[in-house]
């Protein structure tokens, strides 16, 4: 996880000394400073800071007018919130297989589009961007909104463009396991003025009376309360200044480690933007090889990663919402919840794949030592 230091400590102390923690009234305007800085650094017109990545997804979906009766195509490999956010706005998630890159399989995406489809949520998992060129072509053909779930890819680029700025809207998370953090927190990015206005409404109870809010009375609707405080804004400004160096270091570590692992015969998973890779995944021929390799320090098997695997989304698979009459599947013409055997290729790939996990935290020399150690522990072929 990204480390916090004295700069963050002093930034928070300044807010506390100032005495006003609310972003809506504090004269420090640290949240607004962060929003402007993130938009400028990543190349978007607008950024809206919210209190977590799930809130960012809900806000973006509402801003894009996704709701009851709609289908949203979502990667089957993602944190549960990517699909849950769709349900929270009354729409239903349609799970899409992943391919060898561990991101959305574009062929399966095309095959699962129905007349009810209204949006796609590509998920850039493990700092690995989706094939956005092909995905955008399909979205344009079917007039679908593209809402990027870049919660695990803040600072990652795809063919020169920042993940989260390529579709109609992008979403980030800043919890402590991400590339930058304030403990929790999130953001919505867009270059569409109307989407931004609706997102602002969605995240702040539908208000448009704030003097610094975008003002379109015809876009006002009942929103939620997903605001962040100036304390989080203070931390995020410092973390944003550290992000470029942090991402350069991650890319250097990947570039140094991959040749060592490849020479040893480890099967490195392909990447949609290999020159900018910030993560390493190895995909074995068999599940047994992956289980054996995951016993090494610094390695985790993707299938063992909690609710990132759709078969562990029990409430979604069972179709259980907070109230029985809040039933998005019925509103989508009696579409059924996904089943545990919905995406077998995804389960197969996750069962055979391992991530080399501590690339973000390790000093460069330690990353090289790890690569050499793992190169000596290639599992014996089981097939």
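^ structure tokens above, recovered residues below v
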């Amino acid at each position: 996880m990204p480390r916090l230091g004295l700069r963050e400590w002093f930034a928070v102390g300044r807010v506390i000394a100032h005495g006003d923690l609310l972003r809506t009234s504090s004269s420090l305007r640290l949240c607004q400073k962060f929003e402007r800085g993130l938009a400028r650094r990543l190349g978007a017109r607008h950024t809206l800071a919210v209190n977590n990545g799930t809130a960012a997804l809900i806000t973006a979906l509402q801003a894009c007018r996704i709701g009851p009766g709609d289908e949203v195509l979502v990667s089957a490999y993602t944190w549960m919130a990517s699909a849950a956010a769709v349900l929270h706005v009354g729409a239903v998630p349609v799970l899409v297989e992943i391919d060898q890159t561990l991101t959305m399989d574009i062929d399966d995406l095309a095959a699962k589009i129905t007349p009810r489809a209204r949006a796609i949520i590509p998920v850039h998992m493990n700092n690995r961007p989706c094939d956005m060129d092909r995905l955008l072509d399909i979205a344009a053909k079917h007039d679908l909104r593209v809402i990027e779930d870049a919660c695990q890819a803040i600072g990652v680029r795809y063919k020169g463009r920042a993940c989260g700025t390529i579709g109609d809207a992008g979403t980030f998370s800043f919890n402590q396991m991400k590339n930058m953090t304030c403990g929790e927190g999130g953001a919505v990015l867009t270059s569409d003025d109307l989407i931004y206005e609706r997102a602002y409404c969605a995240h702040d109870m539908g208000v448009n009376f704030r003097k610094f809010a975008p003002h379109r009375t015809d876009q006002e609707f009942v929103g939620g309360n997903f605001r962040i405080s100036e304390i989080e804004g203070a931390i995020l400004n410092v973390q944003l200044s550290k992000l470029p160096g942090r991402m350069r270091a991650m890319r250097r570590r990947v570039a140094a480690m991959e040749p060592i692992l490849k020479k040893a015969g480890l099967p490195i998973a392909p990447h949609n933007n290999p020159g900018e890779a910030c993560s390493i995944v190895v995909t074995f021929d068999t599940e047994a090889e992956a289980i054996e390799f995951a016993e090494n320090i610094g390695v985790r098997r993707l299938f063992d990663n909690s609710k990132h695997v759709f078969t562990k989304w029990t409430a979604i698979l069972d179709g259980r919402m907070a109230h029985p009459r809040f039933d998005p599947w019925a509103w989508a013409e009696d579409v059924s919840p996904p089943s545990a055997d919905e995406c077998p290729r995804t389960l197969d790939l996750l069962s055979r794949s391992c991530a080399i996990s501590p690339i973000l935290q390790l000093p460069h020399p330690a990353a090289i030592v790890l690569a050499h150690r793992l190169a000596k522990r290639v599992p014996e072929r089981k097939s």
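The domain at 6-239+321-326 is CATH 3.40.640.10 (Aspartate Aminotransferase; domain 2).
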